[in-house]
Design goal:
The chain is 20% helix and 11% strand. It is α/β, with parallel strands linked by helices and 267 residues long. The protein has a domain of 112 residues: Alpha-Beta Horseshoe (Leucine-rich repeat, LRR (right-handed beta-alpha superhelix)), CATH 3.80.10. It has a ten-stranded parallel beta sheet with strand order 1-2-3-4-5-6-7-8-9-10. The N terminus is likely disordered.
């Protein structure tokens, strides 16, 4: 009888420990990442809270999360944490619900807090010069995000879900570890600047003609030997094409110069 009671207590104790651990893991797990974000609906926002370019330029620049929180989240539009070598960004960032520009460049970041997914008003995100190895999926459903700089990281894949970022006008991923780009990238019909210099790209897939607003395309310092012929359809709007440091034959360069007469081509 005593043995039975001891066994019961032991099992209950294990159950209690597991329950506590599960609760702790739930509390400490990164919210809003992975498939949870990718499969969610885009949030709706109050468009009256969105600042125009000039308004955002004039807005107060905060250099500490807590400083912005003390002033009140309704005033925190611009946060610049550039070059602090912080190693990590506090989850408190998610409290700045009206933040519209966030610069966390050069901070030795290997990952980013899940709370970035709560920044529904974000228009510009700059995380260049860090140690990121994956594309931050926290950004995918931000409804008005227009500019992303992830240059000088160690990202090796652009997720196909990027097609959901339909407001993007600039995507900079220079000096990463990309060996390919998904055709879903071409669904970003508002994209004006695409910078992919210094990766390991060897093939640019068909479909690039869908980028009907593209003004700058930087493919320099890759391993590209040919480009899809449909690139000639970008002639009316493509202003810059950077191809230096690739393996494109001289004959194809000559063809590009003729096919894109209004484009500044560097090779």
């Amino acid at each position: 009888m005593k043995k039975s009671i001891r066994n019961t207590v032991w099992v209950c104790g294990i159950g209690l420990v597991v329950g506590v651990l599960s609760g702790c893991l739930a509390k400490n797990s990164t919210p809003g990442t992975g498939s949870e974000i990718i499969n969610a609906e885009k949030p709706s926002i109050d468009t009256t809270r969105v600042l125009e370019t000039l308004e955002l330029y004039r807005a107060k620049r905060y250099e500490e999360i807590q400083e912005a929180l003390i002033d009140g989240v309704e005033h925190g539009y611009k946060l610049v944490l550039y070059g602090r070598k912080m190693g990590q960004i506090s989850s408190d960032i998610g409290k700045l619900v009206y933040l519209q520009t966030l610069d966390v460049a050069h901070n030795e970041l290997a990952d980013l807090p899940g709370e970035l997914a709560d920044l529904h008003y974000l228009q510009g995100f700059y995380a260049n010069g860090n140690r990121l190895t994956t594309f931050p999926v926290q950004l995918i459903l931000l409804p008005i995000l227009k500019s992303i700089d992830l240059s000088d990281n160690q990202i090796n894949l652009v997720p196909v879900e990027i097609l959901r970022m339909d407001q993007l006008t600039r995507l900079s991923m220079d000096n990463n570890l990309l060996t390919s780009i998904p055709v879903e990238l071409y669904e970003l019909g508002n994209l004006e600047i695409l910078e992919l210099s210094g990766n390991g790209l060897s093939i640019i897939p068909e479909g690039i003609s869908k980028l009907s607003k593209l003004k700058k395309l930087d493919l320099s310092q890759n391993q590209i030997s040919t480009l899809p012929r449909e690139i000639s359809t970008l002639s009316g709007h493509l202003e810059e094409l950077h191809l230096q440091g690739n393996k494109i034959p001289a004959g194809e360069i000559d063809w590009l110069v003729k096919a894109l007469p209004n484009t500044r081509i560097r090779y």
